[in-house]
Amino acid sequence: MTRWSLYLTAYRTIVTKEILRFSRIWVQTILPPAITTTLYFVIFGKLIGERIGEMGGYSYIEFIVPGLILMSVIQNSYANVVSSFFSTKLQHYIEELLIAPVPNWVVLAGYVSGGVARGTIVGFVVTLISLFFTDLAIHSYAVTLLVFVLTSILFALGGFINAVYAKTFDDVSIVPTFVLTPLTYLGGVFYSIELLPGFWQTVSMGNPILYMVNAFRHGLLGVSDIDIGLALLIILGFILALTAFSLNLLQRGVGIKQ
Amino acid sequence: MNALAIQNLHKTYSNGFEALKGISLEVEAGDFFALLGPNGAGKSTAIGIIASLINKSSGEVTIFGHDLDRERELAKQQIGLVPQEFNFNQWEPVVEILVNQAGYYGIPRHKAFIRAEKSLKRLDLWDKRTSQARSLSGGMKRRLMIARALVHRPRLLILDEPTAGVDIEIRRSMWDFLREINGQGTTIILTTHYLEEAEVLCRNIAIINHGRIVEQTKLTRLLSRLQTETFVLDIRQDLTEVPDLAGYPMQLMDPNTLEVVVKREQTVNRLFAELSQRGIEVLSMRNKQNRLEQLFMDLVDRSRAEREVTAS
To answer: Using CB atoms within 10 A of its CB, is residue A27 exposed (0-12), middle (13-18) or buried (19+)?
Structure first.
């Protein structure tokens, strides 16, 4: 067995384990975002949206679809890794990985891929649901897929770091509730930042999720409040920084070794 | 060749507690080795460092010639660990736990299933393969951890209190299993609080106390140091007073139970002859204390006394 075949098998094992984990509990992992997003489409898209009229040159429901899909991807990629890795710590079965000849980057890649897998499945389900309410004409498949995957990776990494530091179940829910959700809602999912006064437009530019939502909207609709190149650079920059930070945490054994 | 070599291993935790104060240890390939010590002596810390679960402060660990720092992955491939606490996903099916562990060592799923089947059958867990681990009894969970530790066929198996809390029947069957795999060439390091277990299974022994190795020797050599043994005799007659036997200190525990201290140079034949002459019939005899337990306590007491002298 070569070193690389060991790494590949170990990586596949972690990813398979992660997919089996969230598939077994699909009622907790896949169904809730599908129901929530359906409610968003019905209430904001149909009932209220029809009275709002156009936004950014599109009907309101067409405008919010990209943001709602990406919001599901963000929340589920994050939630999968934070809950799964925190459980491995809590029940001590992280030791199965620590004792094995698996390098830290394989462990990280495995958990992040698990998060991306759940983000992708939920994103796909939400996209299918959106087709019941509006037509989706994809402006750029490349940009759409790129932003979808990169955003998923970024928030899976975020979930991993949260799990490393978490000591209690409260620590697992604090960041999604008090940081992630407000940033997502204020990240242009439901409105164009052109509607905001100048000062708040400038403040909004400090919200990284704004760039992701707008880049994804650009991929689907071809409209965006910000420059798509800058958005991709920001996402990639965050991914590199969080990857380096996560590997450093694993190397030092923060939260998992004494 | 050494299965394990530890040089000057130190560990100080972040709260300042010095758990290991420079221990050095060698375990030969094929050995059945006991690492003993009272609670908090440093056994689990040493095992944690060997298994990469705890970061060491300084020192060197070599496993079958592979340095744990410089050839980390090769060194890790040699080890299987059965920890003291249950550390598997309680919600996962039994067979999945084994298959996943094999995967972390580069064994593909289809081969891992074959190995898992063999291990689970050998440890009488095959019927439980689809059950969630949390539904197993304590003894089954211990056996599951042994099966998991062996799924990648390690050359060195480390067991930290493997029979804690299991009934006698399961303990004996685990002993048989451990003897069997040791006979097949797997080096075994065992920590246990049941000193009878160490005496029955192990050939070599190290005793650790307050982060230092206070003794490392062959078990037979250690037992030969025993100066006295205390026997408990069950007597047929009702005795009212302690029989007068010169050279054999005795104590009457109840009218039918006599405790006798026999020195190393004395024989039990003479003891029986003397008792017989006095018309006392012995129905049965047993050691009051496990022999290793007696030595263990002596060594731990001596180590404590030395520390007190140093401190004063």
So the answer is: exposed
Q: Cα–Cα–Cα angle for A20, A21, A22, nearest 5°?
A: 95
Query: For residue B299, how many C-alpha atoms fall within 13 Å in the half-sphere facing its CB?
Result: 26
Place of tokens 């020797």: B217
Contact call for B87 and A96, based on CB within 8 A: yes
The amino acid at B18: E
pLDDT in tens, A110-167: 999 999 999 999 999 999 999 999 888 889 999 999 999 999 999 999 999 999 999 9
Going from the C-alpha of B45 to that of each of A105, B69, B133, B160, B210, the distances in angstroms are: 26, 17, 27, 11, 11
Q: Could you give the dihedral angle defined by the CA atoms of residues B76, B78, B80 and B84, in that order, rounded to the nearest 10 degrees? A: -60
Shortest distance between the Cα of A161 and any Cα of chain B, in A, equals 19
| In contact, B105 and A6? CB cutoff 8 Å | yes
- Planar angle of CA A124, A204, A59, nearest 5 degrees: 50
- Chain A residues in contact with B48 by the CB 8 A cut-off are 258
Sole residue written with tokens 């939400």: A126
